[in-house]
Design goal:
By secondary structure, this protein is mainly alpha-helical. It has one domain. Helix content is 53%, strand content 3%. It has five helices and two strands, in the order E-E-H-H-H-H-H. A two-stranded antiparallel ribbon has the order 1-2. Helix 1 crosses helix 4. The chain is globular. The N and C termini lie far apart (60 Å).
Amino acid sequence: MGSDRGGVNEAHRPSLKLGRSEPEQGAMADSVAFNRTCELLAEHTAFSDLEARGTVRLALRSLGQSAKTVGKTEMMIAVRSALEPELAARSVADAGTVCRRILDGLAALETSEQSPYEIFSRLG
């Protein structure tokens, strides 16, 4: 067993994980549409990858969407309706042009991935 210091058994102390080098077991990866949007945002602004991902996550959250399940269609809606105000709040010059470039990039995105919305809308 581990040593007992100050009443805390070292063998039962949880380890701290600093940073995420790979997804946790059982965790879903972010969607292709989310990842592509973040790449395009970082490409067309001075945002770092982390800033771009956080900004897109906030835009999605304002619409009740998740980065893990958002499809191309929902992502395009989020860019049109929620991302531009997020960019304006962060003093991005010409946020409308940035959003149009992201929409162009998403329109060219070929993915077999489907969001729950796309699946259920097909079912009627």
